[in-house]
Every structure is written in structure tokens, then in C-alpha cells.
Amino acid sequence: MSSDRARSSLIVALDVPDADAALALAGTLAGHVGMLKIGLELFVAEGPSIVQRVKAAHPELGIFLDLKLHDIPNTMAGAITSARKLGADLITVHAGSGVEHLRACVEAAGDELGVLAVTVLTSQDAAACQQAGHTRPVSEIVGMRVDAAREAGCAGIVCSGQELLSLRERAGSLYKVVPGIRPAGAAVGDQKRVMTPARAIGDGATHLVVGRPIRNAEDPAAAADAIVAEIDGAL
Ligand code: C5P
After folding, report:
1. CA 55/CA 51 separation, integer angstroms
2. Which residue from 36, 53, 143, 209 has the least number of CB within 10 angstroms?
3. Spacing, Cα 15 to ligand 1 middle (Å)
4. 211 Cα–ligand 1 center, Å
């Protein structure tokens, strides 16, 4: 029997096109995972009510609203207030917005909603950062954004598994939420730098985001259970 702690650290991405598919997957995974992640695809297709519908169907599951906000502080804070009213538990914003922006988000979020700062997207490599005008190495940019997240009082960061060890000290007690997770033998898909659940937890991840390895499995609940067991073994 896997521990509640292991289960609560598993976040499954509801990367599906509509509410019917999202509610069906949520129903299959209830009791097997800790949180469901609603991203841009589903949110744009169904609107904010999708958060309330999933929450109403499964009040025991956390909702992670992955909207990666990036705007002026006042607008970001307004969006955070709206997300809070919807009942989301976690929301992402871009850390590159700066400390002032992050602080406005944290203030608007209050105690119920945790703000996660996305450091540098895993799809952005050194060349992409340079093209965007950043002269420092990616690792340094990530480090500076972790500092900004801490200073602003964010609940956590979203980072690549590869960055976990180097960020360990700097990130302190921030949640470290890691996508790009692949159990040994699972298809990698478009993810470039993947990591197993056990390795990510061993390196300090507090939450893992998993999409296709669970969603596309023949038995998604069993696939989730296997990952939870692997997390449990690494805790
Ligand atoms: O299917 P897969 O396990 O690759 O899904 C990973 C999820 O995490 C997707 O929803 C993706 O958008 C999200 N994500 C990511 N890399 C990031 C941030 C979020 O893969 N840097």
C-alpha cells in the first residue's frame, strides 16, 4: 500500500481537448493521484468553469491551474484573484516577470492558492535564451528566478529534473514541481530531458507532473499506482 504522501505528490496533466474527456480521466484517476493539472488546451476550450466542474466532481483532488501568466502586475494579480475564486489550489506564473510581478500575484493569491514560478521553460535551451537577449547561462538565469520566487513568497517553482540538485540549497523549502517524468521504458515523446520518478524524488522534487505515461496507458489507474509505488520507494 503506497503512502498518502507519495500519492499526494503525483500531479496528472489533463491534457485533453474537452470537458467530457477531462471528467472521464479524472474519474478514472480519483483515489490514485493527488492533483489534476488543467493546462491551456483544456482551459481555452472549456473556459474557467472546467475548474469548478472537475473540483465539484472530485473535491478530494487538488487542482493545479497551469496558465503560466505573464503580464503587468495588476493584470496578473487580477487573474490570480479570479483563479482563487474558482477554487484552484496551485497556479503557474512566469518567474521572468520579475519580483514585483510575483509579489503582486502572491498577495492576490492569499492563503488558499499557491503561486508556482516557472523558472525557464524546458523547451528553451541556451540558444533560445541568447536569442531572447539573455547573456547569462541558463543555469544562472534559473538560479536568479528561484531567488525571485523566494523573495516574493511563492509557494514553489516549476523546474527541470536536471536542475534539482543545483537548486537544492537555493530553493530552500519551495515546492519543486517537475514535469518531463518518464518511468523506465516509457515513450519519451517530445520531451527532451526526461527523468524517472524515483530519480526526480531522490534529487529533491516535491511534486511530479506526468501526462502521457498515465493518460495513454492501457490502464491509467494502474500506471498511476506504479508511479506512486516508485515515488514511495524513493521517499
Ligand atoms: O505528457 P507529458 O508527461 O510530457 O506532460 C507533461 C506536462 O507538463 C504537460 O502538460 C506539459 O505542458 C507540462 N510541462 C512540461 N514542461 C514544462 C512545463 C510544463 O512538460 N517545462
Report:
1. 6
2. 53
3. 9
4. 7
Q: What cell was used for 58?
A: 472530485
Fold exhibited by the domain 4-234: TIM Barrel (3.20.20)
Q: Which of 64, 68, 209 to mutate to test the pocket of ligand 1 (most atoms within 8 A of CB)?
A: 209
3-state SS string over the chain? CCCHHHHHCEEEECCCCCHHHHHHHHHHHCCCCCEEEEEHHHHHHHCCHHHHHHHHHCCCCEEEEEEEECCCHHHHHHHHHHHHHHCCCEEEEEHHHCHHHHHHHHHHHCCCCEEEEECCCCCCCHHHHHHCCCCCCHHHHHHHHHHHHHHHCCCEEECCHHHHHHHHHHHCCCEEEECCECCCCCCCCCCCCCECHHHHHHCCCCEEEECHHHHCCCCHHHHHHHHHHHHHHHC
CA of 138 to the centre of ligand 1 (A): 19
Q: What is the CA radius of gyration of the chain?
A: 17
**Which residue's CA is the closest to the ligand 1 atom numbered 5?**
211
Instruction: Quick: pLDDT tens for 115-141.
Output: 999 998 777 777 877 888 888 888 888
Q: From the centroid of its chain, how far is CA 47?
A: 19
Looking at the whole model, is its pTM more than 0.70? yes
